[in-house]
Amino acid sequence: MDLMEDKKINLGDLIFILFYKYGGKIKGSTKLQKLIDIIRLDTDLKVNIEYSPYKYGNFSQQVNDTVQVFLDNQWLIKEEFMYQKDKKINIFRLSSKGKKIAKVLYDNLLTGELKSLNILDKFINKNQERIIAYSYFWYPKTAIKSRIREEIFKRSPILSNLEGDLEQEYNSIINSGKSVKEVIQESWKC
Fold first, then answer.
1. For residue 40, is it within any domain?
2. pTM of the complete model
């Protein structure tokens, strides 16, 4: 019997937990998509979800569908915020009903599950662009169809240090079909 059994988590429960961890509010459905994708790719938590490359990196319709169920049940409240003349972002907040559910789910997480979610601590005060940059850097395959990849690569502090030989090396990793993380992990193996 395998003692290192995968920790499975329901997508709906994970969304409640993410909102709780982020103080009941998440700015942008893209940010929510990225946070779930990072958990899926970077932790031992197993979420029954399918992602595929899309306009802003990996995307799952299941996340949007689940958020709609939360809105329909009044567990979430959605507000639109105009941040430029022609651009808006959705801000999602837990309702009082949603907060109660999220708290119960968060309080009942196992120690290992809480530890897996610690990766998100580094994103608590980061904007959506920084989270996207992290995702694109560590998982370049997620950015294959991104409309904003070049813009993110130019503006991100993570990626702005990639120049000359390092940039060529990074691009060769992207073209190899492996993630940067896979290459780094392989280079540390003896």
1. yes
2. 0.76
